[in-house]
Amino acid sequence: MNTATAADYKVFLRRFYAEVDDGALDLLLGELRPLAVRKGDFVLRAGQVQRELLFVFQGVQLTSFDHDGDEHVITFSYPPSLAGIPDSFFYQTPAQDSIRALTDSTFGSISFHRLQELFDQSQPLERLFRKMVEAKLSGLIMRHKEFHALTIKERFRRFAQRSAHLFHLVPHKYIANYLRINPTNFSKLYNSTAW
Can you tell which superkingdom this protein's organism belongs to (predicted)? Predict the structure, then answer.
């Protein structure tokens, strides 16, 4: 399984804001503290406040919410990316969603309060995170449109184009749930050569 390094995170973060300098990124990445979570354990449970933002160094995690006893998958995180529930972290309020480790996972974590201090110290870091939030919002709007406008086959193909490696890392029932495709139909699509 992939393990992300500080160099990988510099490349990842510059995708959102290319002008951010090494000094600002070194300041941020130098503050990360290690955290390890075993496969199957919760990183964050619904009702808890996300006190730390997590940079995924290794593993795959699933973010989901429960509705009437059914789990609904929102997203997957894997290196290099961030794992978190934005509203809980940025507003320091109880999360409505949960994050669970699908594999043994390691993270670099930074507390909400320390991140705010870094924003005060470094305008490029604050701008970087604003650009990341903008990109996340844009991605959520695109995903919302896909669910309303695309057929299940089109949704499957788009996922395969973006994240085909997850087919080998994540149980298919979670991907089917994420794509809102019946497991039987998902299996047919996966086993076809059309994608």
Answer: Bacteria
Question: Distance between CA 180 and CA 21 in Å, rounded?
Answer: 40
- How confident is the model over 31-67, as pLDDT tens digits? 999 999 999 999 999 999 999 999 999 999 999 999 9
**Segment (H or E) for 91:** helix 86-91
Query: Which pair of structure tokens corresponds to residue 20?
Result: 């951010």
pLDDT category at 193 given cuts 50, 70, 90 is low
Determine contact, residues 122/13, Cβ cutoff 8 Å: no
CA 105 vs. chain centroid, Å, equals 13
Residue 110, both tokens: 């930074």
Cβ(100)–Cβ(62) under 8 Å?
A: yes
Domains in the chain: ranges and CATH: 6-121 (2.60.120.10)
